[in-house]
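Check these lines:
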Amino acid sequence: MCGVAGVFFRTATSVDAAVQAARRMAGALVHRGPDDGGYWVDRDVGIILIHRRLSILDLSPTGHQPMVSASGRFVLVFNGEIYNHLELRKELEREGVQAPLSGPLPEEEGVYAPWRGHSDTETLLAACERWGLEETLRRAVGMFAIALWDRAERQLHLARDRLGEKPLYYGWCRGGFVFASELKALRRFPGFDNPVDRNALAAYLRFLYVPEPWSIYQGIYKLEPGCRLTLMGEGVTNLPSAPPHAPMDARGLSLRRWWSLHRVTEAGNAAPPGDETTAVSALEERLRESIRLQSVADVPLGAFLSGGVDSSTIVALMQSEAVAPVRTFTIGFEDAAYDEAIYARAIAHHLGTDHTELSVTPHETLDVIPQLPRIYDEPFADSSQIPTLLVCRQARRHVTVALSGDAGDELFGGYNRYLWVQRIWTKLAWMPWPVRQAAVRLILSRSVDRWDTLGAWLKIRVNLLGDKAHKLAEGLSGVHDLDDLYHNLVSEWKQPTTVVLGAREVSTLLAHRDEWPVLREPEHRMMYLDAMTYLPGDILCKVDRAAMAVSLETRAPFLDHRVVEFAWRMPLAMKIRGGVGKWPLRRILYKYVPRELIERPKQGFGIPLAEWLRGPLRDWAEDLLDERRLNDEGFLNPVPIRRYWREHLGRRRNRQHALWAVLMFQAWLEART
């Protein structure tokens, strides 16, 4: 795991100035790569490539980047891991590749070795030289963000992995085209003064993250998962000033998708995996292979264990193959409503892992909040970022690599909305529009506390009943079909342009139904949309930034593209059964863990944010939400924000997530200035 950056200068720049820029940008990425660093400059063209290294495979200097190919044509910087790189080496050797790197090779008893070291970077570069970048991407199994400079064609290629595990920002600022793993490196580029993108800010308030391909800055974008971008032509004179709106742009830039989840979902529907027993067995074998490949490292390795189905499945399969107890890590909280440590502890004991549990106090948790704007680089408001950072810190004290259960929900139907949205809509869709909207108003007219009290009196066993009733009612407000309902449920501020001054909300995939694959079941449509938007924009971003902040590499076996493609071959009835999701994962897990340790209502990885905003965080929040301050800054309309704040403090509504989005923007804005 590493950090990459680079600059393609628009104007003539001295080598000394370029080197100084590289050092500043590399310094902003040290946390992603504390073990080594380097840069490479082509003074004739005006390009510089920058790298910071966290050594995972081949800890020796032979894994140093930037790396130059044997012919000298290609220069590579790379962030991530190619899990099947040893298989790719064998293929290259069969095709006659003997010495992929230029320069002296290690010598033993007078015989030259065909490879200088055993890093996956070396394999990747040799493959690009032999097969070309796109064919190499198709053959690679892994997570990655790549920058490849072709000296012969004078082309810069950027590429990102299939599902978006590794980040890559790119864009234009004063003096040139820039790219980096994190925005903080771009801000170190001399003359960076890109203003806040108000349209992207409106989308952030809706989704709690800035959706791809936008960033919080005008002129800076995220390369989308499964995409590659090429700057073409004779160097800096042809650099465009804005991203293209078509796959090929006459101004010298090409942006295209080299892997498509859209195609995977439609192809999967046409190729079901056989009967249930065969399908579950095949899924287990694919997961075992993914875990085996992702467990290769030259540094200590462990896994996160929350006690839920996803992480427990990964750990159970890891432990079944391991010769020693797997190191597992979990976080415990004093508030029982948010504490899953007891479940993780029981599963770890049953599996025989070497388990470490950190119980954190509210004070320790609150201490993390001032660090969030620096870690996440742009406004990010999934409050589970806090326990995620804490568990990453804990794991890093013992290991350098940790496997996680991320993406199990999106692939196998784990989120609650997949389980009840269809049932709710079926019961309500027959109602005339005025009646349905009257029911919405009735539900919202009662406070969260009153619904909780009513639920207790009626002995309704639903955790946080009031919150869920309000969320459902707000989701049903103004909707005409199930897809509208999904869009409402994933939107926190339903009309964000009334909050962000001067904004016109950017268009996202959710608004372009003509671009969706043909999926008959609404649950599958939601799973596809989540995998395309929420997974890379929220879940993977959250984990990457939290882990990299403490120099920890995280790996997600569910995101091996062969597992993803197989999951999309499984019909919905194999994923959700009897109102319960993740049916095939449960079938696998029950072979290793008793059912009673797993079967319980789904519990999010969260914190008691609603009460903290009314208690220990109230003064901090009040300062950031001050009406005069909001007016002076000129980004946000204080009227709806102050109304939400009053409703939350008065317990009429739980506005924790909407307010957290505003607070994280305000905290980011304060830290930036």
About this structure: The two ends are 30 Å apart (CA to CA). DSSP finds 28 helices and 20 strands in the chain.
